Amino acid sequence: MHFTYVNPTVIHFGKGQISAIQSAIPAGSKVLVIYGGGSIKRNGVYEQLAKALEGHEWLEFSGVEPNPTRETMDKAVAIVKEQGVDFILAVGGGSVIDGSKFVAAAAKYDGDSWDIMTGKHTVTEALPVGAILTLPATGSESNSAAVVTYAAEQSKRGFFSPAVQPKFAVLDPDVMKTLPEHQLLNGIVDAWVHICEQYLTYPTGNMVQEGYAESLLKNLLVLGAQFGERDNDAWRANLMWTANQALNGMLASGIPHDWATHMIGHELTALWHVDHARSLAIVQPSLLRDQLDAKRAKLEQMGRNVFGFADADDLAAKTIDAIESFYQSLGVDTQFTAPDMTKAQAIDAVITKLEENGMVAIGEHQAITPEVTRRILDSAFQ
Ligand code: NZQ
Ligand code: ZN
Predict the structure, then answer these.
(1) In the chain, where does the domain assigned CATH 1.20.1090.10 lie?
(2) Which in 188, 231, 250, 311 has the greatest CB count within 10 A?
(3) CATH domain 10-175 topology
């Protein structure tokens, strides 16, 4: 397939690189530093960025929640507009970075900010964004995507625009030292599923993207197996760089995409606040089993090249079992029970949300209709 590829985000990787923001942010900018619930105040990141911002004019906005809401981010938009902010520095995980992208786009738009997520407004301009990543998982630090929730409507949606792609991203693996085990596991699973969404479709003959995807998947298997010995610089650096490469546009170039696991998973988060990565581990094994015939050739390739399995009639099924076992080996559940409702009600709730969001023909063949999703959830939900 034809493709046009560029990744314009400058990456500053390694210990002490937070200081690089000093020159990475244009002189004379008025900077809004956006962060989350305060982890950056407990791990030295805030002190490092404050030092690097000496000489810049800056203010801050905190309290971005995991799965950022438009309700919260609209408050930051108001500050940007009132104060004449002209540079946004996002400091956190995917939620803070995505929320900051939304702010950067909404700051240049006079209508209802949610129009950005519904597609009523196409984002062509935004304030410049820079990122200091504190949680390797989403790849948001060097891609053009953002996912934002409208809490009042239990709606979680994504948008893409080159205008919000960060100008630079600082990836200092040292900041991962304070990450709870739970979030590190989420990072491994999210990065893994990102690669799968861009790989587990059908053979393309594209040796570069397919081969790179397989290398990154093997990295994550190793990092998962070494989880008990994770307190070392190499482990942290390898996870941070692998998760970044998993969703920075490179693997996505010139190949078919799936993303159905993500679209269904987002509804689990919108409805029940399931962590993003956990929602994927719940949906994906059941989705792959349902779609086994359409994905057989690629599942077999993954079985051979990632898991090292020998050819066999049941190779595709064995590969799905191995993916599910990988999640379970990390203590990540692959089944879900919705609180306070029956399984049938929970499935109905997800289908209704998918229909509201227009997600009625998803996957690389647009074959995952609400009827197919029902079958998938019937197997994924208890
Ligand atoms: O808010 P703070 O205090 O920073 O705490 C966060 C948060 O509670 C904490 N944390 C982050 N870095 C830390 C830390 N705690 C201690 N030490 C550190 N160094 O971790 C918690 C979770 O953070 P969050 O940003 O929500 O996690 P993640 O990076 O997994 O982001 C998830 C969001 O990204 C979206 C998801 O849908 C979800 O909303 N995604 C964005 C994508 C993109 N832009 O390309 C693609 C993904 O598929 C995904 O959909
Ligand atoms: Zn994801």
Answers:
(1) 181-380
(2) 188
(3) Rossmann fold (3.40.50)
Amino acid residing at 148: V
Using a 6 Å cutoff on CB, does residue 38 contact ligand 1?
yes
> What average pLDDT score do residues 203-218 get?
97
Residues 6 or more apart whose Cβ sits within 8 Å of residue 9: 141, 142, 165, 166, 167, 168, 169, 248
Of 3.40.50.720, 1.20.1090.10, 1.10.443.10, 2.40.420.20, the CATH number of 181-380 is: 1.20.1090.10
State pTM to two decimals.
Answer: 0.98
- CATH 3.40.50.1970 in the chain: give the residue spans: 10-175
Stretch 20-48: mean pLDDT: 97
Q: Considering every ligand atom, which ligand is closest to the CA of 40?
A: 1
HSE (side-chain half, CA atoms, 13 Å) at 184: 23
The secondary structure of 178-226 as a DSSP string is G--HHHHHHHHHHHHHHHHHHHSS-----HHHHHHHHHHHHHHHHHHHT
Q: How far is the CA of 193 from the centre of ligand 2 (A)?
A: 7
Nearest to 260 by CA among 154, 338, 377: 377
Residue 147 phi/psi, 5° resolution? Answer: -120, 125
Q: What is the pLDDT of residue 1?
A: 86
- Interval between CA 119 and ligand 2 midpoint (Å): 21
What is the arithmetic mean of pLDDT over 281-293? 98
Does the Cβ of 98 fall within 6 Å of ligand 1? yes
> What is the distance of C-alpha 267 from the center of its chain?
15
Q: Which ligand is nearest to the CA of 137?
A: 1
Report the separation in Å between the CA atom of 203 and the middle of ligand 1, taken as the mean of its atom positions.
32
pLDDT beyond 90 at 330: yes
- Determine whether the shortest distance from the Cβ of 139 to ligand 1 is under 6 A: yes
Q: Is the CB of 135 under 6 A from ligand 1?
A: yes
Ligand 1 pocket check: which of 65, 134, 149, 271 to mutate, most ligand atoms within 8 Å of Cβ? 134
Does the beta carbon of 249 lie inside 6 Å of ligand 1?
A: no
